[in-house]
Amino acid sequence: MSDEAAPRQSFTDKHRKVLLGFLAVAMFIAAWQAAFLFVPFNKLFISKPDLIWNALIDLIVSGDLLRDLAVSAAPFLYGFSAAVIVGVPLGVVMGWRAPVRYTLDPIMTIFYASPLVALAPLVIVFFGVGVSGKAIIIFVLSVFPFIFNAQAGVRAIDPLLINVVRSLGGSERDLYLKVLIPGVLPYIVAGARIAVGRGLIGILVGEFFAASEGIGYAIARFGDLFALDKMFACILAIMVIAVVLTEGIRWAERAAFPWRVGQ
Amino acid sequence: MTDTRALKANIAAASDLDAPARSLWHRLEPPILGISGILVLLLLWEALPRIITMNAGTKLFFTTPSQIVGTLWRLFSTGAIWTPLGVSASGFALGLALAIVVGIPLGVLIGRSRTLNAMLDPFVTAFNATPRLVFLPLVMLWFGLGLWTKVVIVFVGAVFPLLINTYEGVRNADKTLINVVRSFGASEWDVARLVVVPNAMPYIIAGLRLAIGRAVLGVVVAEFFGSESGLGVMMVQAAGRYQVDVVFSGLIVFAALSLAMTALVQMLEARLSRWRPQQAGGE
Questions:
Q1: What is the signed CA dihedral for A44, A49, A53, A55, rounded to 10 degrees?
Q2: Would you call B130 and A242 a contact, using CB atoms and an 8 Å cutoff?
Q3: Cβ atoms of residues A184 and B102 within 8 Å
Q4: How many Å is the Cα radius of gyration of chain B?
């Protein structure tokens, strides 16, 4: 559409936003690196981009980073899958059946409003520092976006569509397959985007507290050792993963549900 | 006053002969079911130790609502909670205030300037997607175990929802209004003051609500790992001593803090949008 309106846009005009973004990031890194030409560099409190880059390569080559990430990924997958398995059906039932919604909604709202991270020490003391403790923290944090979004998705379904399916003699199964699932799915994916962020918080909380491996533990340990280059490298890795996950889901939303763009 | 209202209700009920009972139930169903849901949960929780016998180890981790209420009462009546609560609240307030002071003007700036938006977008996206908690060890290294670590963590958590929502609100400002104000010779400052910010207010308020949730979360985690005093510290120490009731009391206080702040923001929103013409469709 915009191509037709302005056929002779130059390359820089078309990609202005991306180019400016790259430029800003490059400038930021250059300024960071250059700042230490003028101020004394204290390795214990700050690191430089070239050192961080070397540390990152080091961690990747030695396999430490991948090992830590793999250790953290297991509880994340368990907790997150459990959140989907529990949260989505619960949310759908709450949206579909009004009495269930009236009964459960206040409880869920209270749980959602309270900072449940605060229960993390208790969970760790009870379940230990292994996979199960972390998985439970991740589950508790990431289940609510699924519940609330699935519920909102069901409630947003146009009653007209339901009536049309019923009038044309559709079975209950048609109702679920043709109306309910297509209606709810975009909301669930949007919920997944929120839940990913909360799940990552869950991993970090669990591993900062008490763990002997994992990416959160690595960050905390490198901080304690004043190995700031390695710590920054791990932080960078988490940032990349977080951006890839959230932006990836956003991209999938646009690709799979183009009619919902802009909502 | 009440008499006339009762009379009107009577008339309404009388005129709506066939379904008065049903409409009453319709009105009362949500609160009744909601309250009874909570009550059933609390009763089950309270009765659980009497229904099933627990071994000593599990009992150590178990508490009942009545115990939690008792602990809350004890904490408040002896005044033991005020010092940690004050420490937590000051970190929360300072961080949130900083986030407001930085986030809203910056949001307006990147909403008004395309170049600035393009340049800052990668940073905003990256920092917003990343759980702020990863910076905690670094922030602890820089700011120590005191108040400022907490303030920084709260700030970093709360500033992005504010920034992003302000930006969205500014981008949605009515172009015609901006052009009108411009034609009358308004500077960029006037445009921001007269059109853009008042228009973005609902977005900013929504951002503020998100920011409060993030800020409470920030206080909790910052105190868990990088602090010497505060409500979060009290909770971690209690968990270590198996004082589960104290942990839950802390949770309830944090939840109450977050709910009270949200209610305050709602009042603020009602006050700030009084001038707004009532629109048929709402937002």
A1: 0
A2: yes
A3: no
A4: 25
In this prediction the pTM is 0.80
| Listed residue (B100, B169, B119) closest to A27, CA to CA | B119
Distance CA B189, CA B202 (A): 20
Tokens coding B279: 């629109």
pLDDT digits (tens, 9 = 90+) for B2-30: 455 555 555 555 555 454 556 777 778 88
Q: How many CB atoms lie within 10 A of CB B145?
A: 15
A86 in Cβ contact with A143 (< 8 Å)? yes
Higher pLDDT, B203 or B283: B203
Interface test with A, best of B133, B233, B257 (most A CBs within 10 A): B133
**Residues B220, A115: C-beta atoms closer than 8 Å:** yes
Query: For residue B158, what pLDDT is reported?
Result: 92
Q: Does A110 touch chain B (CB under 8 A)?
A: yes
Mean pLDDT along residues A26-32: 89
Give the separation between CA B113 and CA B121, rounded to whole angstroms: 12
Nearest to A133 by CA among A68, A77, A206: A206
Which residues of A fall within a CB distance of 8 Å from B119? 20-21, 23-24
| Cβ contact B119–A23 (<8 Å) | yes
Residue B277 DSSP one-character state: P
**Domains parsed from chain B with CATH numbers:** 2-53 (no CATH), 74-272 (1.10.3720.10)
Question: What's the pLDDT tens digit per position in A125-179?
Answer: 778 777 888 899 999 999 999 999 999 888 888 888 888 888 888 888 888 888 8
Query: Averaged over B101-128, what is the pLDDT?
Result: 88
- Using DSSP's 3-state secondary structure scheme, residue A44 falls into coil
Identify residue A43 by its one-letter amino acid code.
Answer: K
Give the mean pLDDT of chain A. 84
Question: 3-state secondary structure string, B41-98?
Answer: HHHHHHHHHHHCCCCHHHHHCCCCHHHHHHHHHHHHHCCCCHHHHHHHHHHHHHHHHH
**Radius of gyration for the alpha carbons in chain A, expressed in angstroms and rounded:** 23
Q: Which of A:2-31 have CB within 8 Å of B?
A: 16-18, 20-25, 28
Chain B residues touching A205 at Cβ < 8 A? 133, 221, 224
Contacts of B240 (CB under 8 A, 6+ apart): A121, A125
Alpha carbons A228 and B141: distance in angstroms, whole number:
10
Q: Is A174 exposed, middle or buried (0-12, 13-18, 19+ CB in 10 A)?
A: middle
Tell me how far apart the alpha carbons of residues A145 and A91 are, in angstroms, rounded to a whole number. 9
**Cβ distance A48 to A33 under 8 Å?**
yes
